[in-house]
């Protein structure tokens, strides 16, 4: 299979590329405009396989996308390119609308033009896989059942609203034009090569360096955590087996409060690299909550597990230890980011 994949130098996209190169014979064209959160190092040795190509193109550039489709001739699209940090969407929502909404529209139109030119058999086997988030479903209360594929949309942040918009566009192009699209929604991902503005790498790095560990509100907001390598495997199975018009809710059944996540990181670091000043939980500082902070996300992945023949392999305790060990062994990467692109300052305080 020849896969045109957007956002392949980002966190989840790069994990998908690494999985494809390691576990399949598929070929990939990675289309990435290389924003602040992208890193070429994340694809590791993909270029040496002979099955990987790269194009630095913004997905809002429909003309450039048309050229890429004609030259690469993909069998499938995996659309992961997105602005994804809620706090940044609070400070500056415009770029989220451009990338997540306008960019998805542009990619759909380029894919539709290309798909329409294919012969009947190739049109039937072509797939457009749009990767989205569980945040489009809104927030759960403590005793609400987890999200499923049929949960109504109720986005609460500029980020989740922009992703909900893109999901609707993808489904509209299926129903209106027949483009064989489908959507997957996932929970919070974590793992290696995660940009340091997100909770787990931020807390890991700050705790290692003996800096304050900011926790929003009381730390009781709940997230369902999925190890990124497990998600990558699910996404590849989805593009291989996914049916047009379907939705796949992908998760690992690993809910934790934000405070649980922070204290677990502290505990693992205390074991691996003890701090002479004492246990790192002393560094926790409760800070004012961000605007519109959703209380809880959790996914029931039963449908995806059954139809895709997939199940997350890592529990949270195993995955978080692997993640922390990776950050301890790859300081050069995140130290460079801290020095040049993101200093660790708080985002998302605009009201």
How would you describe the overall organization of this protein?
This protein has 351 residues and is α/β, with parallel strands linked by helices. It contains twelve helices and twelve strands. It has helices at residues 11-23, 62-72, 86-91, 94-116, 120-125, 158-177, 199-209, 228-241, 258-272, 302-308, 316-329, 331-340; strands at residues 2-6, 27-31, 52-55, 76-79, 127-133, 181-186, 188-190, 213-216, 222-227, 247-250, 255-257, 284-287. The strands form three sheets. Strands 3-2-1-4-5-6-10 form a seven-stranded parallel beta sheet, sandwiched between helices. α1 crosses α8 (228-241) and α7 crosses α11 (316-329). It is globular and about 65 Å long. The model has no long low-confidence stretch (mean pLDDT 95).
């Amino acid at each position: 299979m020849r896969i045109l994949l957007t956002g392949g130098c980002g966190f989840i996209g790069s994990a998908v590329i690494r999985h494809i190169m390691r576990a399949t014979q598929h070929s990939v064209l990675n289309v990435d405009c290389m924003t602040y959160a992208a890193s070429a190092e994340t694809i590791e040795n993909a270029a040496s396989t002979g099955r990987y190509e790269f194009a630095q193109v913004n997905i809002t550039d429909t003309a450039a996308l048309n050229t890429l489709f004609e030259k690469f001739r993909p069998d499938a699209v995996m659309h992961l390119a997105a602005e994804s940090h809620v706090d940044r969407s609070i400070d500056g929502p415009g770029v989220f609308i451009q990338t997540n909404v306008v960019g998805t529209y542009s990619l759909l139109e380029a894919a539709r033009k290309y798909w329409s030119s294919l012969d009947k058999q190739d049109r039937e086997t072509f797939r457009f896989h749009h990767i989205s988030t569980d945040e489009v479903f809104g927030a759960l209360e403590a005793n609400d059942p987890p999200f499923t594929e049929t949960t109504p949309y109720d986005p609460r942040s500029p980020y989740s609203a922009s992703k909900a918009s893109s999901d609707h566009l993808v489904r509209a192009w299926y129903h209106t034009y027949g483009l064989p699209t489908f959507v997957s929604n996932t929970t919070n991902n974590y793992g290696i090569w995660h940009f340091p503005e997100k909770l787990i790498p931020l807390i890991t790095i700050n705790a290692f360096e003996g800096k304050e560990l900011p926790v929003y509100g009381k730390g009781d907001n709940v997230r369902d955590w999925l190890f990124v390598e497990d998600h990558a495997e699910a996404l590849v199975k989805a593009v291989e087996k996914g049916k047009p018009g379907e939705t796949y809710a992908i998760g690992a059944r690993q809910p934790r409060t934000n405070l649980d996540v922070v204290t677990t990181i502290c505990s693992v670091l205390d074991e691996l690299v003890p701090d002479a000043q004492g246990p790192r939980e002393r560094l926790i500082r409760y800070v004012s909550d961000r605007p519109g902070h959703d209380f809880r996300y959790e996914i029931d992945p039963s449908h995806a597990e059954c139809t895709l023949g997939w199940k997350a392999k890592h529990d949270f305790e195993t995955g978080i230890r692997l993640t922390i060990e990776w950050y301890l062994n790859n300081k050069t990467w995140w130290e460079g980011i801290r020095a040049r692109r993101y200093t660790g300052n708080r985002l998302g305080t605009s009201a």
